[in-house]
Structure formats: structure tokens, C-alpha cells
Description:
- The protein is of the alpha/beta class.
- The chain has 6 helices and 4 strands; from the N terminus they run ααβααβαβαβ.
- It has a 4-stranded parallel sheet.
- α5 (93-104) links the parallel β2 and β3 (110-114).
- The radius of gyration is 15 Å and the shape is globular.
Amino acid sequence: MTLSTAEKRATFRKLHESGCFVIPNPWDVGSARALQGMGFKALASTSAGFAWSIGKSDNHITLDDICTHLTALCGATDLPVNADFEGGFAVEPEGVAANVSRAATTGVAGLSIEDSTGDKTNPISLTPDKGTVKEPAPSDSKVRRGLFRFARREA
């Protein structure tokens, strides 16, 4: 059975509405398929695990790297995948928004943005009055329809 991205996103939404659930982190296609076979209902990518699997350090993968990886994960299983999208691969909110639109085309059901800047004097970039994730532009509405977006606070 091959589920569409819309079906995976609807499943992901229902999982969130039903309460808590366990969401493991595959680092490649093989681990994603193994976790599906174990009965998990959703997956969440791991930026560190993926980076290490291709010989890079965490936070040193490119936008192209992550989008290729997410496409492979989403295509490998019928489970919804939440993307660990690091800091959005841009500094300015408009750049993050454009990159989120690109990530949405990979088939992910959800996407997490880390708000850490890496700067010990100013570690958090998300504030109530200025977030790093913008709402989709009208031209992106079909691509991003149903996509869960999460912000994570990490210092």
C-alpha cells in the first residue's frame, strides 16, 4: 500500500489529536523500514544521525542533503515522517519559509525548526513577537497544505 502525502499528513494529525505516541528516529531508509516493521505509527528524522551516517557533523548538512534524505525516508515507508529541519537552513524568516516550502515537497508530514542560534550570548532566535517560521505564501498553499510545523527551543 502506498499512501499519498496528504494521507500521511492526515494520519499524523490524527495521531496528535489522539494524545501521546512514541515517534522513533530513523537515520536511513533501512532503519525507517525496520521501525515501520516494528509497528511504530510515525517516524521523526534525526539530523545528527543522518549527518553522522554520511560522515558529517551535526548541523553541517546542506539543504540539498536534507531534502534528498527526507525524500528517501518518505518514499521508503507508508508512515508519516516529521522532519528534523535543524534551524531551517537560513537565518532570515523569509529564507526559512522558502526552505520549509522546499522541504514540504519531499513528502514530510511535519517539520520541526530548532530555534538555537549557536551563539552562546544570544542562544534563542524565536521570540513571541518575531518567529523564524512565516506562514506560507499563497503560491505555497497547496505544497504545504496539512503540514505540521513545530518550533523547538534548544540552547
